[in-house]
TrEMBL record:
One of its GO terms (molecular function) is N-carbamoylputrescine amidase activity. Transmembrane segments: none annotated. Keywords: Hydrolase. The keyword Hydrolase applies. This is N-carbamoylputrescine amidase. Pfam families: CN_hydrolase (PF00795). It comes from the Bacteria. Residues 6-265 form the CN hydrolase domain. GO terms for biological process: putrescine biosynthetic process from arginine. SUPFAM superfamilies: Carbon-nitrogen hydrolase. InterPro entries: Aliph_Amidase/BUP, C-N_Hydrolase, C-N_Hydrolase_sf. It comes from Flavobacterium granuli.
Length: 295
């Protein structure tokens, strides 16, 4: 029988360090989350390094790792030891010249339950991800695990209702969004509140429209590794929302934290019975959604 209730966690961290130190740090925080009762645990996007996409520099490709190497070995062993599911976002080297922004979903026995490759790749000032990442080719996926059915999307994916919908339609109970998003310090005073508010509101909307739990795991801290630049101030504020968009757990903007909330599948079903958005979808009229624009 599937679990009717299980606890999920997102971990909010400062990851402005070298890969070896970030790995040790994240292993320790995952262990702490499990001690608090978490059964499905997500790290932030690109956990193993500082956010290197602030510049276009071929030397940064050295930060990538092949599938099933350092990150998978370490977190697979930990998942098996603790009996938890771990979402591990990492910089994947698929082959020479092809790299992805990816996430392992590692099951309670240490096996790979699934792999997700970020589908939407941004190219904004100091978020130059198109230089590094090939768009994902595995599609939007719901991954069955020993704890529950989860969907993993990554950061820029969070702005697209189609990504949330297609994942939820496959049975996802929770949408996880490992994230690395922050303010340009020079813009924070003028635009910061609206930027942060839009980020949170769009994901709460995905929760409501799909009757799912949503969990976003962001990083914190000022990452100013390039000379003569202001860097990026990652705004933290990780959160977990329920299927009506209600906030179940909310982190600060500047502290390392573990957020935990309970997924209640009876509650989710009750919400969907009373707000039957899936029932009333006019799929016969949605054909044009696959067009770039309706001219």
């Amino acid at each position: 029988m599937p679990n009717k209730k299980y606890k999920i966690a997102v971990i909010q961290l400062n990851l402005n360090d070298v890969a070896e130190n970030n790995l040790k740090k994240c292993l320790s925080w995952v262990r702490d989350a499990a001690k608090l009762g978490a059964e499905v645990i997500s790290l932030p996007e690109l956990y193993s390094s500082h956010y290197f996409c602030q510049s276009e520099d071929v030397d940064n490709f050295a930060l990538a790792e092949p599938l099933y190497s350092t990150s998978f070995i370490a977190f697979s062993a930990l998942a098996k030891e603790l009996g938890v599911v771990i979402i591990v976002p990492f910089f994947e080297k698929r082959m020479a010249g092809i790299y992805h922004n990816s996430a392992y979903i590692i099951d309670t026995d240490g096996s790979e339950a699934g792999l997700y490759r970020k589908m939407h790749i941004p190219d904004d000032p100091h978020f130059y991800e198109k230089f590094y990442f090939t768009p994902g080719d595995l599609g939007f996926k719901t991954i069955p695990t020993q704890k529950g059915k989860i969907g993993t999307l990554i950061c820029w994916d969070q702005w697209y209702p189609e990504a949330a919908r297609l994942t939820a339609l496959q049975g996802a109970e929770v949408l996880f969004y490992p994230t690395a998003i922050g303010w340009h310090p020079g813009e924070k005073d003028e635009y910061g509140a609206n930027q942060y508010g839009a980020w949170m509101n769009v994901m709460k909307g995905h929760a409501v429209a799909n009757g799912v739990y949503v969990a976003a795991a962001n990083r914190i801290g000022l990452e100013q590794y390039l000379p003569d630049t202001a860097g990026i101030e990652f705004w933290g504020a990780s959160f977990i929302a329920g299927p009506q968009g209600e906030i179940l757990a909310q982190a600060s903007h500047d502290k390392e934290e573990i957020l935990i909330a309970e997924v209640d599948l009876d509650l989710q079903e009750n919400v969907r019975q009373n707000w039957p958005f899936f029932r009333d979808r006019r799929i016969d009229a949605f054909g044009d959604i696959t067009k770039r624009a309706i001219d």
